[in-house]
């Protein structure tokens, strides 16, 4: 982990947070919401662009930063979706403390975060690699 430095983390955070918020927003649009995972490609592209503005990164830098960016984007999108789902469930009365089985809820939340971050990492790496190929 000593290889990951500030030059990689800053662009990954910016690209991941921006794209995670966009993926969450686009998830509300019918049909587009199913393709919002392709926005994780954008996280890799944004991160690759920001990374190349700081210094001349290696191929490894692109892949690491793309994975971080996509993972952050998936995590941010998952967090926003989870908060909205839980708040909506409590406000609509479909989710109450008495009916909630905490073990099932924890399992569903764990599966959700695992899927979101894994898809984000995969697409983020592809997006960063696409930017690297396109730029050079």
List the SSEs and their pairings.
Elements: H1 6-26, H2 39-54, H3 59-92, H4 102-135
Helix pairs in contact: 1-2, 1-3, 2-3, 2-4, 3-4
Largest sheet: none
| Relative helix content | over 70%
How many distinct beta strands? 0
Helices and strands: which structural class? mainly alpha
Mean pLDDT: 86
Distance between the termini: 27 Å
How does this model look, in words?
There is one protein chain. The chain has 136 residues and is mainly alpha-helical. The protein has four helices and no strands. Helix 1 (6-26) runs parallel beside helix 3, helix 2 crosses helix 3 (59-92) and helix 3 (59-92) packs antiparallel against helix 4.
Gist of the model:
This protein is mostly helical and 136 residues long. It has 4 helices and no strands. The longest helix is centred in the middle third of the chain and has 34 residues.
Primary descriptors:
single chain; mainly alpha; elongated
């Amino acid at each position: 982990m000593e290889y990951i430095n500030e030059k990689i983390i800053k662009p990954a955070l910016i690209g991941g947070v921006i794209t995670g918020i966009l993926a969450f927003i686009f998830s509300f649009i019918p049909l587009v919401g199913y393709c919002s995972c392709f926005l994780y490609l954008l996280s890799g592209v944004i991160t690759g662009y920001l990374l190349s503005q700081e210094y001349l990164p290696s191929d490894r830098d692109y892949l690491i930063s793309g994975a971080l960016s996509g993972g952050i984007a998936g995590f941010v999108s998952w967090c926003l979706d989870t908060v909205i789902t839980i708040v909506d469930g409590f406000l609509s009365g479909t989710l109450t403390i008495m009916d909630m089985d905490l073990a099932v809820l924890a399992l569903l939340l764990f599966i959700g975060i695992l899927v979101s971050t894994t898809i984000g990492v995969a697409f983020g790496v592809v997006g960063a690699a696409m930017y690297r190929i396109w730029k050079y």
